[in-house]
Automatic annotation (TrEMBL):
Xref: InterPro entries: Acyl-CoA_DH_CS, Acyl-CoA_Oxase/DH_mid-dom, Acyl-CoA_Oxase/DH_mid-dom_sf, AcylCo_DH-like_C, AcylCo_DH/oxidase_C, AcylCoA_DH/ox_N, AcylCoA_DH/ox_N_sf, AcylCoA_DH/oxidase_NM_dom_sf
Chain ranges of the Acyl-CoA dehydrogenase/oxidase N-terminal domain: 12-120
PROSITE patterns: ACYL_COA_DH_1 (PS00072), ACYL_COA_DH_2 (PS00073)
A Pfam family reported for this protein in Swiss-Prot or TrEMBL: Acyl-CoA_dh_N
Gene3D superfamilies: Acyl-CoA dehydrogenase/oxidase, N-terminal domain, Butyryl-CoA Dehydrogenase, subunit A, domain 2, Butyryl-CoA Dehydrogenase, subunit A, domain 3
Designated name of the protein: Acyl-CoA dehydrogenase family protein
Signal peptide: none
Protein family membership: Belongs to the acyl-CoA dehydrogenase family.
Acyl-CoA oxidase/dehydrogenase middle domain: residues covered: 123-222
Acyl-CoA dehydrogenase/oxidase C-terminal domain mapped to chain residues: 235-384
Length: 392
């Protein structure tokens, strides 16, 4: 199924405006975000007014209707600034919207799409204290309400991005005690975060990414109506989650690529301004080698992004390629920010310089939406499955 997206000419105008907004508004606000560990309310409002929270929601429901290629380019553009600015709207336009598109009933689309397009914030509740990539270990349980209407949820979700700000959570929960094939023991529920029994823990202190927040979600006898079950049937939650993770992985890959570009631009400027032995260090060949290696790898990630998003828009199954893009781009970003610290030298280790922050901020990209190691296993598993199918 081809995804047409926004008119290309209008989209290019939008990206031009967004690039200006990032450079003139968001980058100057970074110090305030870091100092207060939060995005200023007026900037969040501006982002909502710009429609960033509903970029991928269909136009008829109040969104911008971007296709996957346009969505990834928007994320990459926003990710030139501090990661918090992407993080606050990324769950809306990525995993939450993807799950709604792939799994929601028409009534659920009619209820939730206009709300997130208008700026309500979503979170995605999959990870738990004892289960991340391993859904068989999931403990959160949803049992039918004895009154006959709806479900009662109990459990704890961990490391949930935007939990302190979210209006709605897409919560994965067991609906069967036994582990079933293809994770059919897991269902997905649309849970208003102000529902009685929902408690959000205090935001976790993190290595980097100031201004973006993760926290636990505790569910204690949370009652939701029958209409809260995504798609109206049990046993499909994990499938919806995994499909939406393709989208999340593209977002992390695009963010890694955009942030690597920001770090490299910073290093080029520093290398031209910093002098040693009477000349700019940019003249030294081993500095040039680090710049060239970084440029080469960023270009490779940009090409992967263009390819995987075009395939997604053409309706291809991109599970393996989205995983490969996320692995490469996140590991690449880690190598680039490491080189940038090296180019800054001793200054790169000081908190007053950007290089130190880039280094800390980038580290999480290799972990969330699937660690590099889990995704490598997934890529290999699909390669071997294809080989077995072809060779009987």
């Amino acid at each position: 199924m081809q995804q047409t997206g926004m008119d290309p000419e209008i989209f290019e105008q939008f990206i031009d405006q967004l690039e200006r907004y990032v450079r003139e508004r968001l980058i100057p606000a970074e110090k305030e975000v870091i100092a207060n560990d939060r995005i200023p309310d007026d900037i969040v409002k501006e982002m909502k007014d710009m429609g960033l929270f509903g970029l991928t929601v269909p136009e008829e429901y109040g969104g911008a209707g971007l296709n996957v290629t346009q969505y990834a380019r928007t994320v990459k553009c926003m990710s030139y600034a501090a990661p918090a600015f992407r993080s606050i709207f990324s769950i809306n336009v990525g995993m939450f919207n993807s799950a709604i598109k792939n799994g929601a009933t028409e009534a659920q689309k009619a209820e939730w799409w206009p709300r997130i397009a208008a700026g309500e914030i979503a979170c995605f509740g999959l990870t738990e204290p004892g289960s991340g990539s391993d859904s068989a270990a999931m403990q959160t349980f949803a049992k039918p309400d004895p009154s006959g209407n709806g479900w009662i949820l109990n459990g704890t979700k961990r490391y949930i991005t935007n939990a302190p700000h979210a209006n709605v959570g897409l919560i994965m929960a067991r609906t069967e005690k036994e582990n079933l094939p293809k994770n059919a023991h897991v269902s997905a529920f649309l849970v208003p975060m102000d529902a009685p029994g929902v408690t959000v823990g205090s935001a976790d202190h993190k290595m980097g990414q100031s201004g973006s927040h993760i926290a636990d979600i505790i569910l204690e006898d949370v009652h939701v109506p029958g209409e809260a079950l995504l798609g109206g049937e049990t046993g499909k939650g994990f499938i919806f989650a995994m499909k939406s993770l393709d989208n999340g992985r593209i977002s992390v890959g695009a963010a890694s690529t955009g942030y690597a570009r920001r770090a490299l631009d910073s290093a080029i400027r520093y290398a031209n301004e910093r002098k040693a032995f009477g000349e700019p260090i940019a003249n030294f060949q081993l500095i040039q080698q680090m710049l060239a290696e970084s440029e080469t790898e960023i270009y490779a990630a940009e090409c992967m992004m263009a390819d995987v998003t075009a395939r997604a828009d053409a309706g291809e199954n991109i599970l393996r390629k989205a995983a490969a893009f996320k692995v490469f781009a996140s590991e690449m970003c880690g190598r680039v920010v490491d080189r940038v610290v090296q180019i800054y030298g001793g200054a790169g280790y000081l908190a007053e310089y950007d290089a130190e922050r880039f280094f800390r901020d980038a580290r999480i990209y290799r972990i969330y939406e699937g660690t590099t190691q889990i995704l490598q296993l997934q890529i290999a598993k699909h390669m071997l499955r294809e080989w077995a199918a072809e060779h009987g």
